[in-house]
Amino acid sequence: MSRIVSALPGRIRIRDRALRDRARLARIEEALSALEGIASLQPNAGAGSLVLHFDAARIAVEVLEAKVDAIIDAELARPHAPRRRSLKMQINRGAKLGMLGSLAASLALAAAGKKGAHAITGGLFVACLGVHLGVHRRSLVR
Fold first, then answer.
1. Can you give the pLDDT at residue 21?
2. Does one domain contain both 10 and 47?
3. Can you give the pLDDT at residue 81?
4. What are phi and psi for residue 7, nearest 5 degrees?
5. Which sequence ranges are marked TM in the entry (predicted)?
6. What domain range includes position 33?
7. Coil, strand or helix: which one is 51?
8. In a domain, 31, yes or no
């Protein structure tokens, strides 16, 4: 499958969502820079793209496109380790699950008329909400 989104004389743009992985993009960049006629590479992991500048007099565009597709297909076929969530995001996930569970329990206990248990689960909800807001405090005060 071709991931080349535009090809002009002397310039090829490659785009794929998998290129957002910086390690993968670096390996592809290394393999492409070894090809004959490549002048420069401009990777952009945020956009998942790579712009390749080449000397059109030294290599035909069709030949280069075939080589580029082969290199990218080979790299993307390699298995890679899934990205591990940061400790901060793991804590936040636990807080969100705690909020969800304590809210459900609190509402069920309120409907059953158990005021004491309802208050305890409500307090647990507020504690989990505090953790969640603490994780996202920087984006809250912008």
1. 87
2. yes
3. 67
4. -140, 120
5. 94-111, 117-135
6. 4-77
7. strand
8. yes
